[in-house]
Amino acid sequence: MNRVLAETYPDAHCELNFNSPFELLVATVMSAQTTDARVNLVTPTLFGKCPTPEDMAGANLEDVEEIIKSTGFFRAKTKSIMGLSAAIRDRYAGVVPGRLEDLVTLPGVGCKTANVVLGNAFA
């Protein structure tokens, strides 16, 4: 199946810009109900201020909301992003887990988001 998909879609890639599993996880959570292009406009500022789960978990809620406001549903997304960051800091020593079973325990992360991260950051 993977071979057929790779042959059929040789240029398939993730449209979100990211440098780490953490960045992809946050960007994927932000991508709900908005475009990847919009998320890519916001993430440089967000990750410039909060590059790690520790930084994100400790950030000022209103500051994060203001940065991601243009993605829509920014209050819920901020809650998820800060919650998943705290969980990664507290339960996984600051490292994004590489298992579906662990990823879906993080706030705001369901199977779809977990599979995006697993397929693009851990592939």
Automatic annotation (TrEMBL):
Gene3D superfamilies linked to this entry: Hypothetical protein, domain 2
Domain of life: Bacteria
Domain HhH-GPD as annotated: residue spans: 30-123
Keywords from the UniProt entry: 4Fe-4S, DNA damage, Glycosidase, Hydrolase, Iron, Iron-sulfur, Metal-binding
InterPro entries recorded: DNA_glycosylase (IPR011257), HhH-GPD_domain (IPR003265)
Annotated protein name in UniProt: HhH-GPD domain-containing protein
Organism: Actinocorallia longicatena
